[in-house]
Every structure is written in C-alpha cells, then in structure tokens.
Specification:
Blueprint: H1 2-19, E1 26-31, H2 38-52, H3 68-78, E2 82-87, H4 93-96, H5 105-115, E3 120-124, E4 126-127, H6 156-171, H7 188-197, E5 203-205, E6 211-213, E7 228-229
Parallel strand pairs: 1-2, 2-3
Antiparallel strand pairs: 4-7, 5-6
Helix pairs in contact: 2-3
C-alpha cells in the first residue's frame, strides 16, 4: 500500500507540479533495506529521489554518509522543500540491526526525530504482530505512540480489488509508459491462491525475516499480510 499507493500518489503530485513549471516542494523516500549497512543504503535511496525531483545529490555518489544527521544536512542544502522518509517493513529492522549504541542507526534516528530541527518527517510501518518491538525505542523517543494509524485487515472482496485494480490501471497506461509491451493479465486461480495464502492467521514471521504460511514446512510458500502501524 505504501509503495503502490502513498508513494505513487505523492510522486504523481510532484510530477504535476513540475509539469506546470513549478519547483518540487516534496521529496518522498521509500526505504525497506534493513540488512547490512542501512545508512549507506538510505543515502543511495535519498540521492535517487533528489535526482528524480530535480535536485542535486545529498552526498558524493561514491561516498558514504558519515551520519544520518550529515545526510539530512546535505539533503537540506540541495533541496528547498520538505522531505518525507517512509521506513517500511520495519519489523525487519529488529532482525538485522542489533547495535543500539549512540552511533548506531537506531541512536541516530532517535536523535534526528527528537531534535526536530529539519524539514523532514518519518513514517514507520510494520506488521501488527511486531508492534511491541517498537517498545525498544520508548526510552529514546518520547511520545513514540502519540501519532499512529492502525490499518485493519482487508475483506476478501477488497483484497481481490487490491490485486486486480493495479493490473487494470497498468493496462490503461499509454504504451510508452509501460515497462513491458502489450497488456498484462492475471489468472483467476492465481488471485484465489494469493488470497488464500495471505489471509489473517496464515502467515507467520520467521526467525530470519521470512514470512511462512502457517501449517507448512519451512521450505513452503512465503508471503506477508496483516495490519500495519504508521
């Protein structure tokens, strides 16, 4: 929903503004790469977004950001607008990022949020069954749960719309805007199988960040579902 819905809609608004000859006033960074060096991965995602809105990069293309603070400082110098950073699949942060010291990603993130001195906002999204893991941030970020939105499970007919409507919308795009030639179709059997396998209670979080369908062996089908908290 974040990537195909929220991010796509905000990017569309920026595109319309630039088509009218107006400068972009918003840059939206979608990020979910929690394995390894998350700060460097975020720096790359930020540079790509700044280029997309017509701003220069926040750091040298080959350089590694020294800290989250310096990364945002560079973004502020190169872009005269607001920055929205969406941290998706944040439950995987707790699987792959184990350093909670002052210089860690977690510590730097808390410092930036608490300082609040830059035109940047963060949205954190994670599964309902991982919400309690955010408690680790409570000592670092006062008022952590003051502003959140809980998304309920989709009904089956809503889930089918969520699968089919993006396909229909893609097929309405002009040929030059499509990544593949021709129209895209989806088999009814696949739609039914997807809805069956990701329904509430069927997917479990594995110890290594993988979704596993309940009742299947570890090598079985994988997927994700459930509620998100923002």
């Amino acid at each position: 929903m974040l990537r195909a819905g929220v991010v796509n809609e905000l990017h569309h608004r920026v595109t319309l503004a630039r088509d009218r000859g107006e400068a972009a006033d918003l840059a939206v960074v979608y990020f979910n790469q929690w394995q390894g060096d998350a700060l460097s991965a975020l720096a790359r995602a930020l540079r790509e977004e700044l280029r997309a809105v017509g701003a220069s990069g926040a750091a040298d293309e080959t350089g590694r950001a020294e800290s989250l603070e310096t990364l945002l400082e560079g973004a502020e110098r190169s872009f005269d607008g607001d920055l929205l950073i969406l941290f998706d699949q944040f439950e995987e942060f707790f699987l792959y990022q184990h350093d909670w010291g002052p210089g860690s990603f977690a510590g730097q993130f808390a410092d930036v949020v608490n300082r609040g001195n830059r035109p940047v906002s963060f949205l954190v999204a994670l599964r309902d069954d991982s919400l309690s893991k955010l408690d680790r941030f409570k000592p670092l970020i006062p008022g952590l749960f003051d502003n959140y939105l809980r998304l309920g499970h989709l009904r089956r007919e809503e889930a089918e719309e969520a699968i089919r409507k993006p396909v229909a919308r893609y097929n309405r795009l002009p040929p030059e805007a499509r990544q593949v030639a021709g129209e895209v179709s989806i088999e009814d059997e696949l739609v039914e199988a997807v809805m069956d396998q990701v329904r509430a209670g069927r997917v479990l979080l594995g110890a290594m960040g993988e979704g596993r369908v309940a009742g299947e062996a570890a090598g079985g089908s994988q997927g994700c579902c459930g509620r998100a908290h923002h």
